[in-house]
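User: Predict the structure for this protein chain, please.
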Amino acid sequence: MLSWLAVLAALAGSGLAHAEELTADQLAARVVRGNGFTWEGAATRLRMVLIEQAGARSERALEVLGRRHEGRLETVARFMSPSDIAGTKFLMVEKAGGGTEQHIYLPGLKRTRRVVGREQEGSFMGSDFTYSDLNRKEDKGAKNARLPDENIGKEPTYVLESKAGSGSPGYAKIRTWIRKSDFIPLRTQFYDADDKLVKTLYVRRTKDIEGKPAVVEAYMKSSNGHATELVVDSVEPKRDLPDAAFSPLTLDR
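Assistant: Here is the predicted structure, written as structure tokens:
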């Protein structure tokens, strides 16, 4: 199954010749998803806007550092506002043996703890994204199928449906509308084991950053009426980021 990574920073590669002939598995492999918050080798500033069912809005600002170290992606996010969560940090590190570790530092408790088990299916900082959504883990047992192509507005898209393998955690099915020109997923629907729609992610705006198309504004709407906006404000290249910035032992600094 195509894992969901909260695609705010998804970077798409170049197109393929004869893309119309792609199988479902080949199409799944072509969809390039970032880790949901950052570009590699950069500091990304973004806003997370939580929208209640009645329309009340609350905004959270954060900065995210990302790098690829020895071929594995490492990301650390620091919340800058509002004051009640400022200083909270979230670390996600791909491990050499496979899988991803997640750690969160809570300044109010002055301690760092690992995010494990059922907690990964919980809301990430009150948003409509779960900790598991941010994970880069792929379901190798997933069954991918191409559905008839559709248009999103004026944009031609491939439609891909991925059903989870036996015993896989998370969503039972994900349906994705993938823009033909650059393989960016413009719409993603998430279904539970009862085939009920849980939430939908909409890509609202893309732009070229360093010569590559990127998602810079997205909107996740849950079936309960709650929603989350993610908006990238800036991306600043940051090379040679120190190892200490991506260690759970130093999140309190």
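The longest strand covers residues 57-69.
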